[in-house]
Amino acid sequence: MENNSFTVLPMSQRFTMNPGQTYTGSLTVVNPADATESLKYHVSVTPYGVVGEDYTADLSTTTGYSEIMNWIKIAEPKGEVAPNESREIEFTITVPEDAKGGGQYATIAVRTDNDKVGTDGVSVNSVFELASVVYGYVNGEIVRNEGGIIENKIPGVSAIAPVRLDATISNTSNVHDDATFVITVTDMFSGRVILPTEDDDGQYNEIIMPDSTRKITREVSNLPKVGMVKISQTIHYNGETSQLEQNVIICPIWFMLLVLATIIAIVWAVVSIVFRHKRKKSGYKKPKKLEE
Question: Would you report the helix, strand and coil content of the chain in percent, each value rounded to 5?
């Protein structure tokens, strides 16, 4: 069967560059131990951009921010990796003398190149591709970032766990920038600290591309299925800090329906009791049936 389980490392890398200079880099293709055959591959360079606030990757549209794809040269664009082995792919980035300052973005994509022959004798080629994103920064004239944190949102009630935290951030500069998030979570009933933990410090960074607005959603897990937690989300970006703290009630739909049904039953019981009490107090008697 075709090999579709290889790995490319790192998933992204950054370069700070000067016009007229050449820089070297590399990525590694890993063919796992459980692979059934050698991995034949070829390497290409594509532009990298994003579309919309959800940052859908665009690997086909060339812009002024993707000129770096023409500066990247792959040393050996084709190769083969045996199972349980890896191979390093080297590349160079030669920045033109007249390169403008700002961000430059591309992907170095590794695509499988294994031809197969089906049972009917027809040649079949199933292609799988992974890529490493290159985030470049060319020293020069940088447009000041007038963007900032547009939204920092934590729900007051969530019908499901994990709970979704939202943020929206704008970047008006001509270079990418990092937004840093710090999240803490505490169980309100037990006082147990859910986040940070030994394995997760609750901090992470997100890249905000130039001339864009990004909507970021983070899911907080390991929460009780029913209960109340205190969640804090702090965002640091472009010299600005936004901190929000919210008590979140976690109440699944089935639990809401159960509570609603219980309330309706109690109200019905109370109304029935009051009605019977009023009838008894008024001396009301059920009329006897008339004799035939």
Answer: 10, 50, 40
